[in-house]
Amino acid sequence: MENTQNNLAGYSSGNNKKIVWTTIVMGIVALGALMWWLKQVPTSQQVQASPTPDAEAAAINQSVDSVNVEDLNAELNAIDTNIQGL
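Above: the chain sequence. Below: its structure as tokens.
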């Protein structure tokens, strides 16, 4: 028990408290800065415009609607004729 008391006698409790509080305050400041930075990053990436799913779906539907099935049957018949000629 005497060894423990002798070892602690060399340390100033006031100095240790200052170090602990300084570390806590610096940690809180660093955490706050990190949270602020992470909050700012997504807003700058949202500037890039991408087509909305509705506009993209409308473009796909228009492309599908423009396909003429009758022409496809005529083309398949032409291919069949070419294959039979081989």
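Residues 13-45 form the longest helix (33 residues).
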